[in-house]
Amino acid sequence: MPATIKDIAKAAKVSRSTVSRVLNDSGYVKEETRERVLAVIEELNYSPSAIARSLSNKRSNTIGVVVPDINNPFFAEMIKGVTRVADAEGYRLLLVDSDENNEKEQLALQALKEQRIEGLLIVATPAKEKKSLEHLRWMRSHHIPVVLLDGHMKYDEFDGVFIDHYQGAHEATLALIDAGHKRIGIMTGKLSSRPAMERLRGFQDAMAERKMTSYDEDILFGDYGHEKAYRLTKEMLMRDKRPTALFISSNQMVLGMMRAVSELGLSIPKDLAFIGFDRLETLNLIGMNCSTVDAHTVEVGELAMKRLIQRLDNEKLKTAHRVLRPDLSLRGSESKSK
Amino acid sequence: MPATIKDIAKAAKVSRSTVSRVLNDSGYVKEETRERVLAVIEELNYSPSAIARSLSNKRSNTIGVVVPDINNPFFAEMIKGVTRVADAEGYRLLLVDSDENNEKEQLALQALKEQRIEGLLIVATPAKEKKSLEHLRWMRSHHIPVVLLDGHMKYDEFDGVFIDHYQGAHEATLALIDAGHKRIGIMTGKLSSRPAMERLRGFQDAMAERKMTSYDEDILFGDYGHEKAYRLTKEMLMRDKRPTALFISSNQMVLGMMRAVSELGLSIPKDLAFIGFDRLETLNLIGMNCSTVDAHTVEVGELAMKRLIQRLDNEKLKTAHRVLRPDLSLRGSESKSK
DNA sequence: GTGAAAGCGCTAACAT
DNA sequence: ATGTTAGCGCTTTCAC
To answer: Among A31, A43, A254, B147, whose CB has the most other CB atoms within 10 angstroms?
Structure first.
């Protein structure tokens, strides 16, 4: 079994408090004894128990982070941002993959409570039974601050850092209009998700502002996935009258769209122009230039963690929502053929 | 402050041990009292402290997982696998991103020791100063089993689950030969990494076995990145005499290669055929069919975690290395034009 | 079946 | 400057 503070104390012929002092360099301790203690620590290969310390301290130094899918670059980047500032500020992270699954999310929250996390960052999934919301409230009522990361839910009662989906879609749509397209469509994500709805609104408002005619059949109801996008695009491309440009609400759907276009022997942007939501690094790297709305996901993570720390220092801040505007990068796929 | 077991005991008019018993359903407790206790727990919204339990138990129930980069899908998938079995077996994960940085890795290992992890899964980075190796040995000497996940290092003294890079490259090369290519090259990864070296060997052995002539200038020394791959490919494509096919040691490099090919107005596989290492999902989804060697990364994670659990149960197993053969998926990019 | 008491490894007053 | 003494919240003998 590993050496304890007691072993160190005995070997260094001092009391446990002295050892504790050199460990945390708190309080006074003569240089001479400090060195002796340090030597013993080194010699016995002593590693203090964070567990015991936490119990005594009543400080776990741990932040819980819950995301729907670690493999999704979108969330992975947020985590990167969170990690960055957590490291810098000396917080440990307990990372949980809720797998888009309400039940798992709840178990996770349960477990995190038991771990006595000091704060929680969460990409909240839409809670049918409101169970998750209850957990979040429990956290808050127990003085565990909660900061929401962009996602389906946007509860006013908690701090949060969000992406401006509306604005991103709005700008993208204007860019398509400015490129000279007369008939423009949208492929939406699952409309049960907040971001998908906001993007749709952004699109519609932009169209209305510019007095563009909207056709109902130009709203393609996708589900964020590439497969459905493929089918929808194919159907659309076989119509007589159709949009010359599309705003596409997710990068996966852009991929499906592209497959449809290429299978029909058509090309981008000549036969169909588009702007997508979320970067498409891979495609840009091989020289297929995709115009996209780029959200600052890493920054979302950083800001959220910073906000959490602020709140840890001062519980009495009023809740705030930070909303980040995405960037529009035009690379050519939005162009209108003359 | 949260309710403690003591509060529950008082409110339920029983002793702390009884509460503890119902919490862990250990020992006997009358149905009636159990219900009363449960009721109080519910009412007081009690959540037991994992910290206190761990201290008492001397069991943290926690496994440390260290990877060089959470954002890299390669490692993200391993984590997915690890998570899967950890969840099922009731272990908590402490996930650390070492950022390919030796110093960070060491700090992380240090921190994990203090957290009293019961086991460690690590994608070890090449340790210049052997400091990491010392940490790993420390772990073992303190009865904390270590299982290596495929990566740069392959220390014989620890259990590990690896990918058969040699075999993958070997098979891919044979496939190119079978496709009818007479002159075949390779683009390597950073040769300081074990996988890159093994892949190179696999390529060379396959060439030799089939008595193919190898040209020194057909070994392109890449660095895993797309930028260098782009330059190397461009140079190669401008030569008079050159390979008609390439085995490319990473997916990022495939991307750079493709950009070079398309910029020169050439096409795949007509002007240059290839097989790459690591899947290229995105490209396959848009209908560019890339032949690749697919490693079973999720499985690496699963097997490693399972192995760790075995060792947790039985410290005295002899160390073993499990090596997984990747699959070759041919999708057309390897074809020879007639 | 249930309770009393000791102890897990550390910190934090409070003395000295 | 250093030691003494209580806990922190839980589990676990050992009694009864």
So the answer is: A254
User: What integer is the mean pLDDT of A236-259?
Assistant: 97
A317 touches strand C (CB under 7 A): no
CA distance B315 to B143: 8
Burial A223-251 (b: 16+ CB within 10 A, else e): bbebebbbebbbebbeeeebbbbbbbbbb
B175 vs B181: CA distance, rounded Å: 9
pLDDT at A130: 72
- Going by the DSSP 8-state scheme, the letter that residue B244 receives in this structure is S
Closest-CA residue of B relative to A76 is B71
pLDDT: is A122 or A316 the higher one?
A122
Candidates B246, B241, B256, B197; CA nearest to B219 is B246
B91: which chain A residues are within 8 Å (Cβ-Cβ)?
none
Chain B nearest-CA distance from A93, in A, is 8
Residue nearest to nucleotide D2 (CA to C1'): A18
Say how far apart CA A248 and CA A333 lie, in whole Å: 12
* Predicted local confidence at residue A158, as pLDDT: 94
pLDDT 10s digits, B36-80: 999 999 999 999 999 999 999 999 999 999 999 998 899 999 999
- Closest A-chain CA to B251: A282
Q: What is the rounded CA–CA span in Å between residue A214 and residue A235? A: 18
Whole-prediction pTM:
0.92
Rg (CA), chain B: 26
Kindly calculate the radius of gyration of chain A based on its CA atoms and give it in whole angstroms: 26
- Per residue in A178-216, is it b (16+ CB within 10 Å) or e — as a string? ebebeebbbbbbbeebbbbbbbbebbbebbeeeebeeee
DSSP bridge pairs for A188: A221
Hey, what are A215's tokens?
């056709």
Q: Does residue A129 surpass a pLDDT of 60?
A: no
Nearest-CA residue relative to C1' of C4: B15
Nearest CA to A110 out of A128, A98, A92, A100 is that of A98
Give the whole-angstrom CA distance, residue A285 versus residue A277: 17
pLDDT of residue B127: 64
Q: Does the pLDDT at position A128 exceed 70?
A: no
Collapse the DSSP code of A149 into the 3-class scheme (helix H, G, I; strand E, B; otherwise coil) and give the result: strand
Q: Is the pLDDT of residue B197 over 80?
A: yes
Mind listing the pLDDT tens digit for each residue in A173-203? 999 999 999 999 999 999 988 999 999 999 9
* Average pLDDT across chain A, whole number: 94
Nearest alpha carbon to residue B260 among B284, B280, B223, B235: B235
Burial B168-180 (b: 16+ CB within 10 A, else e): bbbbbbbbbbebe
Q: Is nucleic acid strand C under 7 Å from B32's C-beta?
A: yes
- Give the bridge partners for B328, in sequence order: B293
CA dist B259 and B147 (Å) reads 39
| Partner-chain contact B287 A256, CB within 8 Å | no
Strand B292-294 relative to strand B327-329, pairing = antiparallel
C-alpha to C-alpha distance for A298 and B71, rounded to whole angstroms = 11
Å from the B24 CA to the D16 C1': 23
- Sheet holding A327-329: strands in order across? A219-221, A184-188, A245-248, A273-277, A292-294, A327-329
Cα–Cα distance for residue pair A248/A203, rounded to 1 Å = 10
Strand C, nucleotides < 7 Å from a protein CB: these are 1-13
Q: Do the Cβ atoms of B51 and A115 come within 8 Å?
A: yes
CB B95 within 8 Å of CB A93: yes
